[in-house]
DNA sequence: CTTTTGTTCATTGTCGACAATCATTCCGGT
DNA sequence: ACCGGAATGATTGTCGACAATGAACAAAAG
């Protein structure tokens, strides 16, 4: 047994670090959807070789945050309304699966982790910023997915959740009613905590579908002409 | 509108070509699970630079067919029984979703494509080889997924289906009863062709879960000690 | 003999330079 | 003015060399 509470100083390889930096920039909205990414410029900004940023970009392609057009360039992924529908549908399906599995195998420690995440959400809903609320929301969902005990499910969920974040942060969706958020998540976690597998599955699907439908409705309402990333604004804030 | 069934002569970039070659070798079983892959040797065999094979390997990592151990090496993915369970569960969920969506929006052309794929399966079941049967089976399922109209669902499904292929081909699972295969798939496609969404979802989940359970049972029966890729046999046939 | 430490070697990580490709621009012809 | 095609510039694709790292082995201490 190692020394308690002493994590190894994880040294990321350069390309991983670069990928992390780019990922943050994209998910925070600093890099707009559809923005062009050139290897040379990134290499200069990051003080590293082009091959290294190339590796980083390929990682992000695998995550669905960047698209590669051969011999032409790399773009920050631009999501159409069709894409948001696809992502919402997929997310609902995966969360429903996770909820069912989680309810089947939840134990004392699992309950604690869920309740802890739920408390964080409550706190954020009362006095936190919008960003904190979004973070707590995603944190709770991630906790539920982890509860399923299915590592691959978690991986695929992360991929999708990250892409969902793409348009959540970019469009700064405001939550109408803070207390509603808490209520909804209480309904979501209750059957899981009770070990009610089918109830959890139903609740999770309803929860995800509703939030997905709301996002799609919000984007439709905006009626922005960026059906396919036509806007392609440049970088909002420099790296 | 282009000429029917005439795809442009896609010249893959070198790293894509290398990735394709490696993918084939892995999925065909020529490269055993857990086999070590060294950049230098592959570069020599493929007559290309190390950086290029590196890019190819990274693609395969994203597909879940290869694992990367930093500063240490690349391995062909080795799946434990836990992994097969995870993959089966995920696949079942995605196929159920696809079946429901497909049943909701099927049209005349969709019906034709499904029936065509089903015919191929029937033919393969009667007079084809085992490989052909597996290919037709996967083809039918892929057709159903495409029917959902959800591109991302297709992408995630492909990732999982490829990993499933990893242990299907490696363990050469033999089908006991050819006619059973056809029967089962008839039950699967019938509600979809009828536009029965909930029936399709139920049938698809049942179909996938059963096949997954059978595979897990088969692997358990084999009781091979490769719980975590400990076997790590070398390359069976040279590239 | 076991455990720890030092060393060597194979392999990955990173880099800068050159080649292939694509998008644009410019020019001549009509 | 309009259109086609060649030149041009920018960007990605590919390569070989050097540095950093980890794993296996050997040596020394207990």
UniProtKB/TrEMBL annotation, chains A, B:
Presence of the UniProt keyword Transferase in the record: no
Keywords for the protein's UniProt record, in alphabetical order: DNA-binding, Transcription, Transcription regulation
GO MF entry, a single one: DNA binding
All copies of domain HTH gntR-type, residue ranges: 12-79
Signal peptide: none
SUPFAM superfamilies referenced in this protein's UniProt entry, alphabetically: GntR ligand-binding domain-like, Winged helix' DNA-binding domain
Keyword DNA damage recorded: no
Protein name per the record: GntR family transcriptional regulator
